[in-house]
Design a protein that fits this description.
Elements lengths: L1 E2 L6 H10 L3 H8 L3 H11 L8 E5 L5 H9 L4 E6 L2 H14 L5 E5 L12 E7 L8 H11 E12 L7 H19 L6 H7 L2 E9 L7 E8 L2
Parallel strand pairs: 1-4, 2-3, 2-5, 3-4, 5-6
Antiparallel strand pairs: 6-8, 7-8
Length: 224
């Protein structure tokens, strides 16, 4: 199901509505298909309990949400995104996989989420936060709707560590400027972001694989 009666940021919606038909292919090509591995790592890091409720922030075409629904069949997955066009693509995939009874899609502003406080056991995102203009407002909402001791797992484009000098140069001077131009996306320091919002960081993982850019995964625990 796609629920679309919530406000969106028009500029972001228009950009991703335009990119929706080719989003999956372009993203796979940009990462040399490494993004599938990163999404799988986000999902594997959940280790959900039965009957958990999981929110996928910036779900886009549903790649991460579908992985989560397949792995955790007893959990409910809710995907949120600005772009209705992206969600329409996700809807088709979900129907094809015959898991539409376990995934709900909502078109909403991530900084004004239409959920009650303390609603979610887990909140995940794979490449869903870097395009959010008011990232601190989004994090305030994420913390509000997450349960006490709930888990967050995010994977985002990030600055490359100093110990990978060649990759760092490629990322800084080629990949990051292109992503900013094409996707209106930016690097995120997830550790500082979580710490700023008093979410306890449990671990982080930097992916040094075939991706030309750089991606970091961080898992944290919500405290109130």
């Amino acid at each position: 199901k796609v629920i679309t009666n919530y406000p969106m940021k028009i500029n972001t919606r228009r950009l991703y509505d335009k990119r929706a038909p080719t989003y999956d292919l372009v993203h796979h090509l940009q990462t040399l298909w490494a993004d599938d591995n990163h999404r799988a790592n986000v999902v594997d890091s959940l280790n959900t309990r039965e009957n958990s409720v999981v929110l996928d922030v910036g779900t886009g075409t549903g790649l991460t949400a579908i992985m989560a629904a397949k792995k955790y069949s007893n959990s409910l997955i809710i995907g949120v995104d600005y772009s209705n066009k992206m969600l329409e693509k996700a809807k088709l995939k979900i129907k094809k996989e015959s898991i539409d009874d376990r995934i709900y899609l909502i078109c909403a502003d991530i900084t004004k989420l239409p959920f009650k406080s303390d609603s979610f056991d887990y909140i995940i995102s794979a490449y869903g936060l870097g395009g959010v203009k008011s990232i601190d407002k989004a994090m305030e909402e994420i913390k509000r709707i997450g349960k006490l001791n709930g888990k967050v797992v995010f994977a985002e484009m990030s600055e490359t560590p100093n110990k990978y000098p060649i990759k760092r140069i490629i990322h800084k001077h080629i990949v990051e400027p292109w992503i900013r131009f094409y996707w209106n996306f930016r690097d995120l320091d997830l550790i500082k972001l979580l710490e700023r919002h008093k979410i306890i960081v449990e671990y982080q993982k930097f992916f040094n694989n075939r991706i030309l850019g750089s991606t970091t995964l961080v898992k944290g625990e919500i405290i109130k």
